[in-house]
């Protein structure tokens, strides 16, 4: 979806030889008539096993040779070396690979590159092809749109096909897994070595590569103080009163729960998390009494009273009791199993505290979702936005439409797409990989019930009308199958595309066939069917479907030349006057379909902005994904002022598929920002979006201005302006999009521990947030509304949270089996002495010199030579990524 805008992925591109044997035309081993023999399956297998691929970025700074009509004149330059293990003389072969930004130009005439669909490309020998000798290396220099700033851009799993043969995976392009870190390695992608050429987008780019020295300077303000973690709860409660640091409540013997009228099942999950730390239910344990809260408060509110003799949790709903136990869990030190005497009064800032995960681009297991839900509950998040259908995959079994999962849940090398979707995102030619898959009906029911037991609402999302290629191709395959059986009416029942539509368009991901035809009644028959079947699964689970996310974003100019749509506009009675209103018509009609079923519609802010509010149900939700640095506050204010439930989902702070740090070895996309670590998420001022201009920079590290004053068009009509005093945001949501996320481990790496800071911002309103100026204001780094006192308060709060993460909280993620990101180490050498630090004080640091044995770091250690540093996870097992001290 929107997220992935400025990204270049690797392609396998063949070119003129760099060897001394260049220009040698192969004629050996030819047929009797002198023509070269076609590649055999045995030769293809050898190529798959031994072809060496090396990819390297030369520069990301545009030059005068960039295509001025493509990507706004922006391009990167890269080179690929390919060393062949056999002679190749024929032209009857092609290599398929994923490249997410098109090639602008190639030096040489030996090969052509054509885009098959989306990011799937094909390389074939061209007119200048002279053959390849065994051991010969071919090199190409080429230009591609925009930038390539991360090694994860180099998509894996290239494969070769010849003369209709079965596809052969090229082994050298497989990802490897680092045994110590659990991270993916791409041996075919060369390291970045030149920050100015390779890691700068433009000459004005001020983003600093997060070297050990840069990280050291960034971490200096965060002092090590384990005492700050002692009484800290994440997310921060409304009010905490420490009654005694000496009268401790020991939990070593466990807890004896007096439930009173509370259903034990409602807090079972919260107690299970305590048991994982060593605090189990026991008749000999400390008494914990659950009581009704004497005052009415917002849902999820609770009081927690701890003394040496007993613990009391008071609440008025299941969530409140669970959250009280979650706060007790947060207070527990896993080494002592003791907590100080205190009282806590707490309630959430926002009702909507959400996390979104995309399982459509690359599939993620049911277990990952269950583990995520458990951690969401631990930190008082209450909405899971489950994105299960997009261009690259349909991930939920739908009764009566088996093609959606038989075909739409997997990608493989079937150019007809009768058995699967085309490969995308480096998925490779075969369907039996972890990036393919779906949730059965039973799986989804289990997810719903698991979430409900943790007071979490699951919001299903099947993106429409754009981002719908998986559904469209699945229904086209169904159509062809039924048509062959002579069942024309049944074949057309759920058809989503007009075969006579000649519209030429391209989505953000370069699809020209990914948008439902909104003029066909069969489209709405399909939508109605899907919603009813999902609603039935919710009913079976005992969890009614009340909120459904339709996507509604990034519709790419489809329908203009569709005969069906032309007839629809000419003859319809739906009030659609021209094609520009079709997108709004779709969203409005789908929202009405949902409303008639008692289900609220949700969508992304760009699509929702095209609707006519008077045609929408009164109650709708919009996720605001506009970038703050690009005036993103304007649409947020507009839609909140409509009375809609607006959920903040800003990319540069809430997209967890973006890198933690500005480093080409970090996983993640970067089209909205180049680094978004846990401290950055903590800094988010949610109720005053434009005020973030005082503390943040844009994607190139440059200051920006946010103008929140009233703006009018030439006719005097208001086009943007401040948030109304009667309006408010409903909450915030973190997002993990999965284009570059190929495993559950990488998904957890990218989500955690940022999810904890998402919870912090969703639950707690900080004292340092700049009050919103309802009269309108202009914010920049000189406007001064974010005062020095506020900045100091923010820094103190972060210091406490950082120490809490390092000394107390990350070990709980380890015990839950969560593969969170172990941070990279800040380090410098002064007078041959090593000094190192971390974003989370409390984790162990190791160093080694000249590749020798790793040693435990002590400040001021004498070193000489090549020094490397790494951090160790809280449990002492997993390692963080190694950095060289520069």
From TrEMBL:
<dbReference type="GO" id="GO:0030247">
    <property type="term" value="F:polysaccharide binding"/>
</dbReference>
<keyword id="KW-0326">Glycosidase</keyword>
<feature type="signal peptide">
    <location>
        <begin position="1"/>
        <end position="20"/>
    </location>
</feature>
<dbReference type="GO" id="GO:0005975">
    <property type="term" value="P:carbohydrate metabolic process"/>
</dbReference>
<dbReference type="GO" id="GO:0016020">
    <property type="term" value="C:membrane"/>
</dbReference>
<dbReference type="InterPro" id="IPR017853">
    <property type="entry name" value="GH"/>
</dbReference>
<dbReference type="InterPro" id="IPR014756">
    <property type="entry name" value="Ig_E-set"/>
</dbReference>
<comment type="similarity">
    <text>Belongs to the glycosyl hydrolase 20 family.</text>
</comment>
<dbReference type="Pfam" id="PF00728">
    <property type="entry name" value="Glyco_hydro_20"/>
</dbReference>
<keyword id="KW-0732">Signal</keyword>
<protein>
    <recommendedName>
        <fullName>beta-N-acetylhexosaminidase</fullName>
        <ecNumber>3.2.1.52</ecNumber>
    </recommendedName>
</protein>
<dbReference type="GO" id="GO:0030203">
    <property type="term" value="P:glycosaminoglycan metabolic process"/>
</dbReference>
<dbReference type="InterPro" id="IPR008965">
    <property type="entry name" value="CBM2/CBM3_carb-bd_dom_sf"/>
</dbReference>
<dbReference type="InterPro" id="IPR012291">
    <property type="entry name" value="CBM2_carb-bd_dom_sf"/>
</dbReference>
<keyword id="KW-0378">Hydrolase</keyword>
<dbReference type="GO" id="GO:0004563">
    <property type="term" value="F:beta-N-acetylhexosaminidase activity"/>
</dbReference>
<feature type="domain" description="Chitobiase/beta-hexosaminidases N-terminal">
    <location>
        <begin position="49"/>
        <end position="214"/>
    </location>
</feature>
<dbReference type="Pfam" id="PF03173">
    <property type="entry name" value="CHB_HEX"/>
</dbReference>
<feature type="active site" description="Proton donor">
    <location>
        <position position="554"/>
    </location>
</feature>
<dbReference type="Pfam" id="PF03174">
    <property type="entry name" value="CHB_HEX_C"/>
</dbReference>
<dbReference type="InterPro" id="IPR015882">
    <property type="entry name" value="HEX_bac_N"/>
</dbReference>
<dbReference type="InterPro" id="IPR029018">
    <property type="entry name" value="Hex-like_dom2"/>
</dbReference>
<dbReference type="InterPro" id="IPR004866">
    <property type="entry name" value="CHB/HEX_N_dom"/>
</dbReference>
<dbReference type="InterPro" id="IPR004867">
    <property type="entry name" value="CHB_C_dom"/>
</dbReference>
<dbReference type="Pfam" id="PF02838">
    <property type="entry name" value="Glyco_hydro_20b"/>
</dbReference>
<dbReference type="InterPro" id="IPR015883">
    <property type="entry name" value="Glyco_hydro_20_cat"/>
</dbReference>
<dbReference type="InterPro" id="IPR025705">
    <property type="entry name" value="Beta_hexosaminidase_sua/sub"/>
</dbReference>
<dbReference type="InterPro" id="IPR013783">
    <property type="entry name" value="Ig-like_fold"/>
</dbReference>
């Amino acid at each position: 979806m929107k997220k992935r805008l400025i990204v270049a992925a690797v392609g396998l591109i063949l070119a003129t030889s760099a060897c001394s044997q260049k220009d040698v035309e192969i004629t050996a081993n030819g047929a009797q008539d002198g023509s070269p023999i076609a590649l055999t399956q045995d030769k293809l297998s050898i190529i798959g096993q031994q072809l060496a691929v090396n990819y390297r970025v030369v520069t990301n700074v545009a030059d005068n040779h960039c295509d001025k009509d493509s990507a706004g004149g922006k391009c990167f330059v890269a080179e690929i070396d390919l060393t062949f293990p056999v002679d190749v003389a024929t032209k009857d072969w092609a290599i398929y690979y994923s490249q997410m930004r098109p090639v602008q130009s190639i030096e040489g005439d030996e090969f052509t590159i054509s885009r098959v669909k989306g990011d799937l490309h094909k390389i074939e020998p061209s007119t200048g092809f002279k053959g390849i000798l065994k051991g010969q290396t071919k090199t190409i220099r080429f230009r591609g749109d925009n930038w390539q700033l991360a090694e994860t851009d180099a998509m894996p799993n290239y494969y070769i096909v010849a003369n209709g043969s079965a596809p052969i995976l090229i082994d050298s392009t497989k990802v490897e897994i680092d045994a110590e870190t659990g991270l993916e390695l791409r041996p075919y992608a060369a390291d970045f070595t030149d920050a100015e050429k390779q890691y700068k987008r433009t000459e004005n780019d001020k983003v600093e590569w997060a070297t050990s020295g840069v990280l050291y300077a960034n971490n200096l303000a965060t002092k090590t103080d384990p005492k700050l973690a002692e009484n800290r709860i994440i997310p921060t409660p409304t009010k905490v009163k420490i009654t005694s640091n000496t009268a401790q409540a020991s939990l070593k013997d466990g807890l004896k729960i007096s439930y009173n009228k509370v259903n034990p099942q409602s807090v079972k999950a919260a107690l299970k998390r305590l048991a994982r730390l060593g605090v189990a239910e026991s008749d000999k344990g400390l008494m914990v009494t659950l009581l009704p809260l004497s005052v009415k408060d917002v849902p999820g509110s609770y009081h927690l009273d701890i003394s040496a003799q007993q613990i009391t949790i008071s609440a008025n709903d299941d969530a409140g009791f669970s959250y009280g136990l979650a706060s007790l869990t947060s207070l527990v030190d896993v080494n002592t199993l003791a907590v100080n005497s205190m009282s806590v009064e707490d309630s959430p800032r926002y009702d909507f505290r959400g996390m979104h995960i995309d399982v459509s681009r690359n599939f993620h297991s049911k277990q990952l979702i269950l583990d995520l839900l458990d951690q969401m509950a631990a930190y008082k998040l209450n909405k899971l936005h489950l994105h299960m259908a997009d261009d690259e995959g349909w991930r939920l079994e739908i009764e009566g439409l088996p093609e959606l999962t038989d075909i739409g849940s997997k990608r493989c090398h079937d150019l007809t797409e009768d058995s699967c979707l085309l490969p995308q995102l480096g998925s490779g030619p075969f369907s039996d990989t972890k990036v393919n898959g779906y949730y059965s009906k039973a799986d989804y029911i289990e997810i719903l019930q698991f979430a409900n037991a943790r007071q979490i609402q699951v919001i299903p999302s099947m993106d429409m009308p754009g981002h719908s290629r998986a559904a469209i191709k699945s229904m086209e395959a169904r159509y062809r199958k039924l048509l062959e059986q002579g069942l024309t009416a049944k074949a057309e029942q759920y058809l989503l595309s007009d075969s006579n539509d000649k519209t030429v368009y391209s989505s953000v991901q370069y699809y020209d066939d990914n948008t439902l035809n909104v003029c066909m009644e069969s489209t709405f028959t399909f939508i109605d069917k899907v919603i009813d079947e999902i609603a039935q699964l919710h009913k079976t689970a005992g969890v009614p479907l009340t909120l459904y996310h339709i996507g509604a974003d990034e519709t790419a100019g489809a329908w203009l030349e569709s005969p069906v749509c032309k007839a629809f506009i000419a003859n319809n009675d739906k009030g659609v006057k021209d094609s520009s209103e079709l997108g709004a018509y779709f969203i409005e009609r789908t929202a009405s379909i949902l409303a008639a079923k008692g289900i609220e519609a949700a969508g992304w802010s760009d699509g929702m902005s095209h609707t006519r509010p008077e045609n929408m149900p009164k109650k709708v939700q919009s996720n605001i994904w506009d970038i703050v640095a690009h005036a993103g506050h304007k649409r947020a204010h507009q839609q909140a002022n409509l009375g809609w439930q607006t959920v903040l989902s800003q990319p540069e702070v809430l997209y967890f598929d973006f890198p933690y740090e500005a480093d080409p070895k970090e996983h993640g996309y970067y089209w909205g920002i180049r680094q978004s670590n846990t401290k950055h998420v903590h800094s988010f001022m949610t109720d005053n979006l434009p005020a973030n201009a005082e503390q943040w920079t844009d994607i190139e590290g440059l200051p920006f201005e946010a103008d929140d004053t009233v703006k009018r068009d030439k006719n005097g009509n208001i086009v943007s302006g401040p948030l109304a005093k009667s309006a408010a945001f409903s909450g915030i949501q973190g997002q993990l999009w999965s284009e570059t996320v190929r495993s559950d481990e990488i998904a957890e790496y990218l989500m955690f521990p940022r999810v904890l800071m998402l919870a912090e911002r969703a639950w707690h309103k900080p004292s340092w947030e700049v009050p919103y100026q309802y009269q309108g204001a202009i914010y920049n780094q000189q406007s001064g509304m974010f005062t020095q006192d506020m900045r100091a308060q923010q820094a103190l709060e972060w210091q406490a949270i950082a120490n809490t993460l390092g000394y107390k909280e990350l070990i709980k993620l380890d015990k839950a089996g969560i593969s969170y990101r172990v941070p990279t180490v800040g380090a410098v050498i002064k007078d041959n002495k090593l000094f190192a630090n971390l974003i989370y004080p409390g984790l162990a640091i190791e160093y080694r010199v000249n590749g020798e044995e790793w040693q435990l770091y002590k400040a001021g250690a004498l070193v000489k030579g090549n020094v490397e540093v790494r951090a160790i996870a809280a449990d002492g097992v997993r390692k963080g990524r190694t950095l060289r001290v520069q």
